[in-house]
Specification:
alpha/beta; Rossmann fold; 27% strand
């Protein structure tokens, strides 16, 4: 099994999922799009993961590679039916690439907040074995305001009605972060755009508080990440079995 990963800044990588992939003997190729790396042919891969980043999906004038990325997402999801997992920006790109609308939120969502599964989310295999209400790291000021055609909303929060969605049978987007490690918050706090949004939302000097809160919840975060990962692999295996 081989995964393709789109990255938009070096510090937003698969995080704890790297450990799970290594333990399972699954290889992955990471493409750093913001560094000008080219998107390879999708036919060699079993799944596409798209990570977060500080840019917005509509900033194609600043980041022209966004156009090629959206085209690759459309190919993966609509033409190939590839299992897809998008986190934060990757969630928004799924929405934008497939005909939804992404825009600025009235109030940014930053910090460790509650996410609630919808009735559809509780019944979806990607969240099998997971709690209806979950603590999650949020760090975003944009959202999927209109889901793409055929999307099913799987989770919500008071500030963001689309915290997770499924498009078709195998493509998932999560607005929140599940890939956390002990280094995630400190590293992201060094990114100027992230540091600015953190201070604007939670007040000056919020980084140490967020780091400590995340550290206390890390076992819970990592258990949720493991369950989500296992569920995603089960989805890939079921798809492969059905294709035989």
């Amino acid at each position: 099994m081989r995964f393709l990963v789109f990255q938009h800044i070096a510090c937003e990588h698969p995080g704890i999922f790297r450990d799970f992939l290594k333990a399972d003997g699954i290889t992955y190729d990471a493409v750093e799009l913001d560094e000008g790396e080219a998107i390879p042919s999708l036919e060699r891969y079993d799944a596409l993961w798209v990570m977060g980043g500080p840019m917005d999906v509509w900033e194609e004038d600043l980041h022209p590679w966004l156009m090629a990325e959206k085209a690759a997402i459309r190919e993966a999801v609509l033409e190939r039916g590839m299992p897809y997992m998008g986190l934060c920006l990757g969630h928004q790109l799924l929405g934008a690439a497939l005909g939804g609308k992404v825009g600025k939120m009235k109030s940014a969502e930053v910090g460790i907040l509650d996410v609630e599964l919808t009735a559809e989310g509780r019944a979806d295999p990607i969240f099998a074995g997971m709690a209806q209400s979950q603590k999650a790291l949020q760090w975003h000021g944009a959202e999927v305001q209109l889901a793409p055609p055929g999307a099913v909303i799987l989770a919500a929060s008071p500030l963001c009605p689309n915290q997770a969605m499924r498009v078709g049978r195998h493509a998932y987007g999560l607005q929140y972060h599940v890939e956390l490690t002990s280094r995630t918050v400190p590293e992201w706090g060094d990114v100027p755009a992230y540091a600015c949004s953190l201070d604007e939302t939670l007040g000056s000097g919020a980084l140490p508080r967020l780091r400590d809160e995340a550290a206390g919840l890390m076992p819970e975060f990592n258990r949720s990440a493991r369950q989500l990962y296992d569920n995603f692999l089960n989805l890939i295996r079921s798809r492969a079995k059905a294709a035989q």
